[in-house]
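Section handout 9: paired folding examples.
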Amino acid sequence: MTRAEFPSRWHPADFAGDPVLTARRLLGSTLVRTLPGGVRLAGRIVEAEAYDCPRDPACTAGRFHAARSAEMAIPPGHWLFWTAHGHPLLQVACREAGVSASVLIRALEPLEGREVMLDHRPVIRERDLTNGPAKLVAALGLHPAQVSRTPVDSAGLHLERAAALPDTDVVTTARIGLREGRNLPWRFHVRGSPWVSPATPSMDLLTLPD
């Protein structure tokens, strides 16, 4: 797919740079999942987190996909998954192919297809539907085997652009669940959004579980 065909979409070339800057720019964009049969599920990105192995201490900790370079040998702007506690989490590869850098999509505000999302992931409180990286993958019915290594402008899963959010609407914090690199301010979320994940940034925790 080309920019001329879909000018409103993010394209793979948009992810060739710094994942920290990219994570910030992704806020407000819409993640769109088109199911077989044409049903469209969509959510606004309200939280994203960056990983950048060339300068990221978290990559040496061995807990994240970024330490496994073979899995990252894909071009920028392609979807990939890593697994945490048995759950696949959705990311986009950044920088050039073979460099362990990515943006993790951490939370969405549901916009379209909420009833289908609730079928995929029944919850008591609707705000718990997509307010976490594993939650949104389940709600959208994403399966790594179907989506992994496809481009961000593909038919089944793509990103639609939005106007850049002003700095006053964005909160910057440390990332979630880290020991190494726990102080890096590489997590971004929309200020005041009830859909942001309830997790506590790593730098604010006294201890972290092994």
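Moving on to protein 2 of 2.
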Amino acid sequence: MRVGVLGCGYVGCELARQLVSDHDVVGVRRSADGLDAVRATGAKAVQADVTDSDALASVPDVDALVFAASSGGRGAAAAERVYVDGLRTAIEAFGSREHSPDRLVYTSSTGVYGDHDGGWVDEDTTLSPTTEKTRVLAEAERIAREFAPEYGIDGAVARFAGLYGPDRYRLERYLDGPVTEGYLNMLHREDAAGIVRFMLESTDEELLVAVDDEPVEKWQFADWLADECGVERPAKRTKAERLEDDGLSEPARRRILTSKRCSNGRLRELGYEFRYPTYREGYRDAVEARSTAN
């Protein structure tokens, strides 16, 4: 199978590393700066912007397409250009070819759920995005699942929880504090890529919540991390205390007020085996590296 990874970055390069031994992989990046990282995985590297159909013509035909492009952490307008316009452009560009992909996996976010007051959510939970950016992500999910089939492409969504892993452990954020209350729903980068691979190779599910086994309260996680690192537990603050900050942006305020626990029950039932089932396994390398450095 030839797999095209549009947005071969943090998760995409890990996916390429996992796929190259069994499949032909093409990794696509917007800028030339990231092409060496794609080549290092063993994949073929192509420079193209997902919003430019002419540029996408340089990408060879593929049997499966993974849309993992990033908007670079910018605002809702940039997100719409990449996730909505870019995804639609990519579907049209590849779907119009004589040899079009059989399957598309779009990598979304559990942010589309909005606030559930700490309750559990899964694939059957109604979406209630609370920010412009998460509303854009919800629209992109619709495009993947409804627009792609118009071109004969089986569209699917992997809804990622908060990603962490090499270069994204953010230890000091929790060790230094203060830590605001709320739930963390997490997923190690290797499992994020592993779940997409699972969706390409082992299941035809249209939607999967990609999260590990154990959503955890931030205070509990911070205390565990401090204990493992052998440092004093960080200061804590309630949501009410954090919301007293007049400098908070409206999106930040909404994120603080958003609380949910994401279930991976369907993923587990289908047989996916996690490399890092919880944060305890996932943060082990980071804790050990910190201890060695100190």
